[in-house]
Each structure stands twice: as C-alpha cells, then as structure tokens.
Amino acid sequence: MSTAARPAPLALSMGDPAGVGPELAVAAWQMAVSGHLPPFVVVGSHAVIAAAARDRQVPVVAVASPDAALAAFPAALPVIDIGTGAYTPGAPDDAGAALALASLTLATELTRHGATSALVTGPVAKSRLARVGFAFPGQTECVAAACGIAADDAVMMLAGPSLRVVPITVHVALAEVPGLLTTRLITARATIAAAALARDFGIARPRLAVAGLNPHAGEEGRMGHEDQAVIAPAVAQLRAAGIDAVGPLPADTMFHAAARATYDLAICMYHDQALIPIKALDFDEGVNVTLGLPIIRTSPDHGTAFGIAGTGTARAGATLAAIRMAAQCVAHRNA
Questions:
Q1: Among 118, 180, 207, 279, which one has the highest count of C-beta atoms within 10 angstroms of its own C-beta?
Q2: Residue 203's domain is classified under what CATH number?
Q3: pLDDT tens figures, 204-249
Q4: Same-domain status, 277 and 308
Q5: Cβ-based neighbours of 59, under 8 Å, separated by 6 or more
Q6: Could you tell me if 181 and 115 lie in one domain?
Q7: pLDDT for residue 4 is more than 60
C-alpha cells in the first residue's frame, strides 16, 4: 500500500525532557510491532529523543513532515525536530519546559490541520510550564483553546480496560466541590461524554452511572442535600434527552466487578472519586482522553515521574494504551 493511501500518523508531543516522556516514546516505537501500534511521529527535539534512545539502541531520524514519518517509521523513530534541547532526566528547568510547550503547540496544530490523525500528549510539569508563559490549568484546556472549544466543553475522561470515568469537577479543592456542582454542569458534561462514546468508541447507546456526592448518595437528605437537589435532576434531564443514565448512586458500591458490568461510563462528582478506582484497577494502562474536541487527544494517565526518569524503570503500558486508544478513536470517527 502506498503511504498516500494510509491514514496520517499520530502526533506524540514530547513532554518535559526531564521526565519520562522521551524514553516512553522510544519504548513505544520499540514495541510498535508487538503492541500492534499505528505509525506515529514525535514532535520535539531530535537531540533529546536521540539521547533517550541511545541506551535502547533505537534508531532515530529527523523528518520534515508527517508524510515523511510514514515512510521512515518501519526503520526508525521519526522526529519532527523543533530545535536543540538538553536531555536532563530528573532535572527539570525552564528551558525544558519551553521545549515541552513548543512541542505541544506544534503537535496540536498538526493534528488540527489534519496532517496527523490524532494527538497523544506526553507528561508535563504544569508548575514549570507556568514559569514560561503557559496560561492554562493543564494540557486539556490548552488543546481545547487551540481548537476553539471552551474549557467547560472539553471533558476529561480516564479510560482503561476495566473502567471509564468522567470527573465533573477536576483540579479543585474538595471543600469547593459542593458549591461548583450544578445540575446544568452535570447535564452538559454527561451529554458531551455520551456523544463522544458513540462517536469515538462505537458505543451506540452508552450507559451512564452517575455517582452521588455524599455517603450513601445522601440517604434522602440525611447526609447532604446535593444528591437530591442537584444530581437527581441532572439524571432526570439526561433521561428525558434519551440518554441511558441512572443515579445518583452510592459511590462505594459502584466499582466492584458486577456493578461495572452494568454501565459504560461512571460520571463522578470530584477528582478522587473518579481517579482512585481507575488507578486501583488500571494503573499501568490508564488513558486520559479529552472528549468534546474536533480532534482526538489522548495522554497516558501519569505524570512526569522526574524521580525515575532516565533510570530505565518507567513502564510504557499507559503510553502504549494511549497510542492504541487514539488509533481506535480515529477508526471509529472515520467509520
């Protein structure tokens, strides 16, 4: 088959050069055949990726375009070079953060314009990015803004082999969660999630399980009013719109195996309510997927891991899963 007839490669942003992103990109290319991965191109510093590849004896080649990456991928890891950078495992600095931001920006633009078929983002340190002018809470909001999507309309889903979860509120203090939850917010994010499961995951009629906020889902108001006053009306609105949703459900009984078999997605009220179960079940294969975008964006569900960067101990499972899931979403959208 000619490269012109093949789908465009995926774009991998490099992440912080002091973190595990570069070595995991190298490891992913090493396991591309055994892991049944599609072609991808790293957007980053050729010098950084080549240094990360040296111990693994992986060939790395600079390419000028995603089309050239398709031809190069079987023999070497292709890199669209954005400039010289230092590979400094475990020693983050502002120069590395600037390189990570440049990588994210170009990889996003390539995907927005269709030169690459999906975006897989490497892990970054948000505090470091803020020092070099990054004005967003995280990569999700940055990618959404580049796509012209409001931050509230970009929904974070964590997905693994055992579970998919969406937290309605994300990086906020737990004390702030009750005041931030509204019927409108829950309904809007759950609606976006249901549409994305149909469009990108091939689930024609997604089943949503909506968690309560309080113990025992409030126990009819004896343990808080939010479940009956805020969450239950949202579930009613979702059902009225034709979405298969149930809840509010007690969160402590939602995540055992028999319960998980009854739904396709758990809608959770706050960060840890969603992330604790998925990290307990799918720690090495969790993928962060941004729903509601015109492009496909995934990311391994872990951070920069500065403490183990460069030691060769970082596990590539989540990176492989993020690449694989992005490709599956591309296939569903094309279908």
A1: 118
A2: 3.40.718.10
A3: 999 999 999 999 998 888 899 999 999 999 999 999 999 999 999 9
A4: no
A5: 53, 75, 76, 77
A6: no
A7: no
